[in-house]
Amino acid sequence: MNIIELNNVSKSFGTVRALNDLTLTVPEGSIFGFLGPNGAGKTTTIKILLRLIKEDSGTINLFGEKIDIENKIKRKRIGFVPEEFSLYNYMTGWEILRFNAGLFEKKNLIKIDELQDTFHLPLREKISTYSRGMKKALSLYIALSTGPELLILDEPTDGLDPVVRKRLLDFLIKEVAEKNITIFFSSHILSEVEKICDTVAIIKRGKVIIQEELDKIKENANLITVRLSSKIDTGKLDAIGITNISKIDEFTFDLKLFKNSSAIVKKIENAGGEVVRKIPLSFEDIFMHFMEEKNVATH
């Protein structure tokens, strides 16, 4: 089952089109990476999922059920850690956790001891004494303490030091493995997405330009060196589906492939070419390709 399904969702703010027929699916039990530059529409997508704002058009399914603009989502099944957060500074950590549990009609807090083993927050002290990183960790406590099935994270590691950041990412991986929770991980930090996510969607100007399992995206992205049996102009390589071409000599070319890598290599071999080198491209190279390509196909 897909926990999230967005189909042709659009949203405008005045003359600014924030989402443009956005379509994506988030499989149950996955860590779903949602990537894009600032202003691409990541936070707008999250606000629509949480029904904080309404879409202009399109359909949304959560937990296998259609949600329209008049419905309220089953908010109790979702935990959320925002990029920017406000906490009651006059409360202690324990007090705000109990307050949140009451809002969700939960008698018992879940996972606090386990979280404390990881983050060691001073829960009996007032939140006003917490650093930004500690407040971010407390937001994760709040989100997980009610036992959500879906955890939505908007730039969750912002403000965390490297040690706490690593603990957080490792904890999220453990949660999925042990509890089958689904995590929607919105970030612009490529290394973190590559570390923990199994499926990735890249958004550009309000539209998903690629969604695929991360391993498959990386498998299809290679720098290959091709030697041809006779002189060939780059126009013929273009016809095969190759545009990132660097000529080494009269018969040898470096090619960057980002999609359908195996099929394109087969076409090259059928045309009399030989692949003499194949090097996987970095995830940063892949991301930048989709950001910079003007006419990239959408999914």
Description:
The protein is elongated, with a radius of gyration of 23 Å. It has helices at 42-49, 93-103, 112-119, 132-144, 162-179, 190-196, 214-219, 234-240, 261-270, 283-292, and strands at 2-13, 16-27, 31-35, 57-62, 65-67, 78-81, 150-154, 182-187, 199-204, 207-213, 222-228, 244-249, 252-257, 273-280. The protein is 33% helix and 31% strand. The mean pLDDT is 85. The chain is an alpha/beta fold and 299 residues long. A hairpin with a 2-residue loop joins strand 1 and strand 2 (16-27). It has 10 helices and 14 strands. The protein folds into 2 domains: 2-213, P-loop containing nucleotide triphosphate hydrolases (Rossmann fold, 3-Layer(aba) Sandwich); 222-280.
Question: Which key phrases capture this entry?
Answer:
299 residues; alpha/beta; six-stranded mixed β-sheet; four-stranded antiparallel β-sheet; 10 helices
Give the overall shape: elongated
CATH topology of the largest domain: Rossmann fold
Query: What is the helical fraction, as a range of percent?
Result: 25-40%
CATH homology-level superfamily of the largest domain: P-loop containing nucleotide triphosphate hydrolases
Spans where pLDDT lies below 50 across 5 or more residues: none
Number of helical runs? 10
Structure class: alpha/beta
For this structure, the quaternary state is single chain
Largest sheet: 6 strands, mixed
The first-level CATH class name of the largest domain:
Alpha Beta
Series of H and E elements: EEEHEEEHHHEHEHEEHEHEEHEH
What proportion strand? 25-35%
Give me the Rg, rounded: 23 Å
Query: How many domains would you count in the coordinates?
Result: 2
C-alpha termini separation = 20 Å
